[in-house]
């Protein structure tokens, strides 16, 4: 993920997904969530200006509780829980405004 503060986002996503934030240098950090793929954070000079073209859906057992936990880590809730035939989801923003969701299947 492009970002302004790689260390901060690596800490946030390690808390959300598990794993330990790792530093390559001041401009590049990553986390290796258990049983999943590496998520990397690279400093870029420009800020985020439009909706993400890719975002993470994080499977959880309890959307309201997961959203509360994410907010305690620095996330921002966007709107209400959405429910459709595929399941339920809550849109969140990470500390730099990147959209992601906590989800449960139908």
From TrEMBL:
InterPro entries: Glyas_Bleomycin-R_OHBP_Dase (IPR029068), Glyoxalase_6 (IPR041581), VOC_core (IPR037523). Coiled coil: none annotated. Residues 1-105 form the VOC domain. Pfam families: Glyoxalase_6. This is Glyoxalase.
């Amino acid at each position: 993920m492009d970002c302004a503060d790689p260390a901060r986002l690596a800490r946030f996503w390690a808390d959300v997904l598990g794993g330990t934030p790792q530093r390559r240098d001041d401009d590049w950090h990553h986390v290796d969530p258990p049983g999943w793929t590496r998520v990397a954070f690279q400093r870029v000079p420009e800020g985020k200006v439009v909706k993400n073209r890719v975002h993470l859906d994080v499977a959880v057992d309890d959307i309201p509780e997961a959203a509360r936990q994410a907010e305690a880590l620095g996330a921002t809730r966007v709107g209400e829980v959405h429910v459709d035939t595929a399941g339920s989801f809550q849109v969140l923003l990470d500390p730099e405004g990147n959209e992601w969701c906590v989800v449960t299947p139908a």
